[in-house]
Amino acid sequence: MPIPADASGDPVYARKPEFERYSALSRFSRMRQESAGKIAPLDLRASETLKSKIHVFDPQRDAEGRRAASPPDPGIPAAGGLRRAAPLAPAPDEMPIPKVPSVQTVPPVAPADIASATEAASTVPNSSLAEVESAVEAGDVLANDAIRPGLLKRADQPADAGVVGIVGGEAGAEWRVRAPLALSGTIVPCKVDASYGAIQPNDLLVASPTSGHAMRAGDSPQMGTVIGKALEPLAAGTGTIRVLTMSR
User: Fold this and answer.
1) pLDDT tens digits along 89-106
2) Residues 6+ apart with CB under 8 A from 164
3) Hey, where are the domains in the chain?
4) CATH class of the domain comprising 113-245
C-alpha cells in the first residue's frame, strides 16, 4: 500500500505551525538531544530510501494500478462467444456462521453486592466512605492512586505524599467497593512495619514501602505525609497497633 499523501502532516502544520512540535519526529528529536546533551542532526537517509521504495500515493499511478489488478467481470463473454454466468451468492440461511473466539471476562459486581457492601461500610462509626480500586482490610493505610485519581489503593511508597487515611472497622473486615476511612482524631488499629525503625509511642507515622502499612516518620517529616501518631510500640517486624489518626 502506498503512503497516504497527507501522512507527513504538512498541510496541518501549514495552517497550525505550533502543532509541528507534537509530531513523532519532533518529539524523537527532542528526546535524542536531551539524552545526548547536544544538538545532533538526524540521519534520515534510511527512512527516505524506504519512503521512495513504498512511494507516496499518486492518484493517477495508483488508480491505474488498481484498475489493472481488478479481476474480470464474470459476466463478460468468454472465448467462443459463450457467456459465463456469475456465481450465485448463497442464501442467507445457507451462509456459514463465523466462529467468534470466546473471551473470558470478569463478571461485574452486582448492584445488590455494591449496596450491601456500602451499607456495611456505612455502619462503621467515625468514618467516611471512599471508593477503593481493590479489596482492602481494616487497618490498611490507603493512598490516592496516581494512575486513577479519586480511587484509593494500599499505600506502598515510603512517605507517600498521596497518603489519605487508615481503613476503619473491626479486625479482619474486608471491603471491596467502598471502604470506611477513619476520620482524623479517631483512634483505630493500624498496620505498621517496624523493619524501617522501631516504633515508640508518640512517634509520627507515614506510609511505608510495605503495602498497606505505616512506618516511623523520623525527624521533620515532609508536609502532607503524616498519617497518624503511634499510641503503642512495635520493636520489629510487622504488626497492628493503635494509632491516633491525623493529617499533617
Assistant:
1) 555 555 555 555 454 444
2) 130, 142, 143, 144, 152, 181
3) 1-66, 113-245
4) mainly beta
Going across the sheet that includes 141-144, the strands are 152-154, 141-144, 163-166
d(CA 150, CA 131): 8
**Helical (H) or strand (E) element with 113:** helix 111-122
Mean pLDDT confidence for 112-119: 54
Nearest to 48 by CA among 25, 30, 71: 25
**Residue whose grid cell is 453486592:** 113
The per-residue DSSP string of 134-203 comes to: S-EETT-EEEE-SSSTT-EEE--STT-TTEEEEB-SSTT-EESSEEEEEPTT-EEEEEEEGGGS-B-TT-
d(CA 138, CA 156) in angstroms, rounded, equals 16
Mind listing the pLDDT tens digit for each residue in 71-82?
555 554 544 555
